[in-house]
Amino acid sequence: SPHLTGPQTYSIACIPADGIGPEVISAGVKVLQTLSDASGAFGLDFKDYDWDSERYKRTGKYIPDGGLESLKKHDAILFGAVGAPDVPDHISLWGLRLAICQPLQQYANVRPTKILRGTESPLRKTTTGDLDWVIIRENSEGEYAGQGGRSHRGCPWETATEVSIFTRHAVERLIRFAFETAQKRTKKHITVVTKSNAQRNGMVMWDEIAAEVAQDFPNVQMDKMLVDAMTCRMVLQPQSLDTIVATNLHADILSDLAAALAGSIGIAPTSNLDPTRQHPSMFEPIHGSAFDITGKGVANPIGTFWTAAEMLRWLGEEDAADRLLECVENVCGRGILTRDLGGEAGTKEVTEAVCAEVRQSF
Ligand code: ATP
Ligand code: MG
């Protein structure tokens, strides 16, 4: 009987993968479990998948046969980072991350960025509240469609093509999702980024589709930027931006810039969403495997905590998501910061402080 069912339990697939991935994911799981126990509002059931570069080197595959099918049974996927010094980056990226995002139709990549209380932007005079953005990145085609080829290998006339694919279907669904996101935010402002002065096919189609979609959102204010000018605006007038939508390549670059302007690449989250909710969505910190700091206990886990909050939000646990982010900001505000944010705390200290804050908040 529905009257007797307890709080909902979500099934979460964890793919910690490489480098600092396992360190930050285990910190994230600890914080999520603490939040679930303390709130009693929902349950979490974690299942670990050991899909990493070691497996690739051993077996030639990141994802074993049938792996995707079992992944599809979960409510959400929590992902660490992929990439190893002895595996070419394009192999690991296509072997694991894109091999999940593409078949699971996670076509919208969402990257919120803000300056957390108690942390600093490298921009002079830019503080908490001056920079509060969400970047929506096209995650299914564009410059990373994998189309192209090479001929005449090794010859001086060797030629490589890297073809960008833009389809009306994919561009429209993404821009529509971005407008819906903008509409839910306070400022109701969207910046559509292209390079339609130099790229006269796909980028001009983007501009046209954006203008069409904008008609359906009369209360959202839209402006257009070329990607090069956009980098200047992000640095010089961060207050003038809110929701930003861009192609796979452009948003990839802009979101790293955004993370750095907000203080550190170690704090920022990413959601790979299937807005149709046919398949589970995947949540990951924006940073990579960071082998230079792996095993040292200094990785900033906040990117994963924020990621965990975004995952809860997508699952419908808004209150828990807001509470978690609030607790993270309280801990930052008390100066418990990792080295990348100018502090001295390790992963463990920050994790324990956030867990304590979560328990205390109830
Ligand atoms: P990828 O190719 O997967 O993006 P990468 O090595 O190019 O990986 P990152 O792994 O993101 O890039 O790391 C860039 C630098 O930022 C690293 O040298 C690392 O010191 C620092 N860094 C990344 N993530 C964190 C983190 N969570 N905490 C502290 N420092 C970090
Ligand atoms: Mg990188």
Automatic annotation (TrEMBL):
Its needed co-factors are: Mn(2+); Mg(2+)
SMART domains per record: Iso_dh (SM01329)
The broad enzyme category this protein falls into is oxidoreductase
Recorded GO molecular functions are: D-malate dehydrogenase (decarboxylating) (NAD+) activity; magnesium ion binding; NAD binding
Sorted UniProt keywords: Magnesium, Manganese, Metal-binding, NAD, Oxidoreductase
The chemistry this enzyme catalyses reads: (R)-malate + NAD(+) = pyruvate + CO2 + NADH
Q: Which Gene3D superfamilies match?
A: Isopropylmalate Dehydrogenase
Q: In this protein, which residues make up the domain named Isopropylmalate dehydrogenase-like?
A: 11-354
- Cite the EC number: 1.1.1.83
* Xref: SUPFAM superfamilies: Isocitrate/Isopropylmalate dehydrogenase-like (SSF53659)
Q: What family does this belong to?
A: Belongs to the isocitrate and isopropylmalate dehydrogenases family.
Q: What is this protein called?
A: D-malate dehydrogenase (decarboxylating)
Q: Which organism is it from?
A: Polychaeton citri CBS 116435
| Record lineage | Eukaryota, Fungi, Dikarya, Ascomycota, Pezizomycotina
